[in-house]
Design goal:
By secondary structure, this protein is α+β, with helices and mostly antiparallel strands. It contains two helices and six strands. A hairpin with a 4-residue loop joins strand 4 and strand 5. Helix 1 runs antiparallel to helix 2. Keywords: Membrane, Transmembrane, Transmembrane helix.
Length: about 150
């Protein structure tokens, strides 16, 4: 029976590690909404290869990693365009990789907080993967403890 308990524990850990990426990805998808915003007539001056655009909604957790894509209708702009910095106070996104002395329409795709209207929901959803890991480990531990013979 001890062998069965050890095999159950190993199998449980393998399952946990196989499903964890899917769990964290689905949690992130639940926490975020996709947003796209176009900025026409973004112009760079002589020697300038960057420009600022003002987003109407904050990116998820105010991070540039929440910017999923920036495209330009100017074929001379260098791909990929990069969201260099984001200023929370003014919602300003600093975009680099542009060609100097040109005008273009920039399209910014980014993730926004989908749960901001629900108090504490973002925190609860964020902790869900951790709670599931603890529950799975508790079940594995309980299975092992149940299989160990007790001395009278």
């Amino acid at each position: 029976m001890k062998v069965f308990g050890a095999l159950a524990a190993i199998f449980g850990v393998i399952l946990l590690f196989n499903f964890m990426p899917n769990l964290t990805n689905s949690t992130h998808d639940l926490q975020t909404d996709a947003a796209t915003q176009a900025f026409p007539a973004v112009t760079t001056g002589a020697g300038e290869t960057a420009a600022d655009v003002v987003l109407t909604t904050d990116p998820y957790q105010d991070r540039t990693t929440s910017i999923t894509g920036i495209t330009s209708d100017n074929v001379l702009d260098v791909d990929p365009l990069v969201a260099a910095t984001y200023t929370t106070a003014t919602n300003t996104l600093h975009v680099t990789g542009l060609v100097a002395s040109q005008s273009r329409t920039l399209t910014v795709a980014y993730e926004t907080d989908a749960l901001s209207d629900f108090t504490m929901m973002g925190t609860i959803v964020g902790w869900t993967p951790v709670l599931i890991v603890i529950a799975v480990l508790a079940v594995i531990g309980g299975t092992i403890m149940a299989l160990i013979p007790r001395r009278a």
